[in-house]
Specification:
Blueprint lengths: L2 E7 L4 H5 L1 H8 L4 E7 L11 H18 L5 H7 L9 H14 L4 H13 L8 H10 L4 H8 L4 H15 L6 E6 L2 E4 L9 H17 L2
Parallel strand pairs: 1-2
Antiparallel strand pairs: 1-3, 3-4
Length: about 210
């Protein structure tokens, strides 16, 4: 049986930060491969008007309540309220792809490092220097990461992720889809927002149920 959980995400999506524990729970399920697809929530460098930043602040409060994920003061009262903050998906997606190309086991740690640097520590993660620091923190060689970061096919990856979103009818980020032996099904991840262990159990149950029918 070939089972893949497709995770459609963006490193700078608050709801994806909330889903971080779900991704880690899925990665621990025996017999299940977790495959990440970054779809670029912020395809162009963007500075947010005050109203949008206030809206995100309210959404972040809901995400924290639902998921238990930490939002730090440097982000909530610093970076988020800074009118010069730039959101740009391309560099952070490239960083995750670079980590994956060097060591697949570092893919989720790199994503987590970016998310926590942004949402907890209030760092400008779209800057290459910050991403190099995060790569080093997760155990990657800085020079090798820098070379990979500048050469990964990020635009092709984003285009493919967008095509996947269209094919499965994903309305936004995050989205999960389970593929077992070529058959696809939607994953009701939102009901597990505050229960990542149960999410892992649900996925395991899906695999066991399929294995009994073959």
């Amino acid at each position: 049986m070939n089972a893949v959980l497709h995770y459609i995400y963006d490193p700078l999506c608050g709801w994806c930060y909330g889903a971080e524990p779900l991704a880690w729970a899925a990665a621990k399920v025996d017999g299940l491969t977790l495959r990440l697809h970054a779809g670029a929530l912020w395809p162009q460098p963007t500075r947010l008007p005050e109203g949008t930043r206030r809206y995100i602040q309210q959404a972040d409060q809901r995400i924290a309540q639902m998921s238990g994920q930490p939002f730090g003061a440097p982000y909530l009262t610093g970076l988020l309220l800074d009118p010069t903050m730039v959101l740009d998906s391309r560099p952070v997606i490239a960083a995750v792809l670079a980590a994956q190309s060097l060591d697949p086991a570092k893919t989720l740690p790199m994503l987590r490092g970016i998310q926590h640097a942004h949402y907890e520590l209030g760092k400008h993660v779209v800057q290459e220097a910050t991403l190099l620091d995060i790569a080093a923190e997760v155990g990657l060689d800085r020079a090798a990461f820098a070379a990979a970061y500048r050469s990964v096919p990020v635009d092709e990856h984003i285009a493919a992720s967008r095509e996947l979103m269209n094919n499965i009818g994903a309305q936004g980020f995050p989205a999960f889809a389970l593929e077992i032996d070529g058959e696809w099904s939607a994953v009701p991840h939102s009901r597990f927002a505050s229960a990542p262990a149960q999410f892992g159990e649900w996925l395991d149950g899906q695999l066991r149920a399929r294995s009994r029918t073959h």
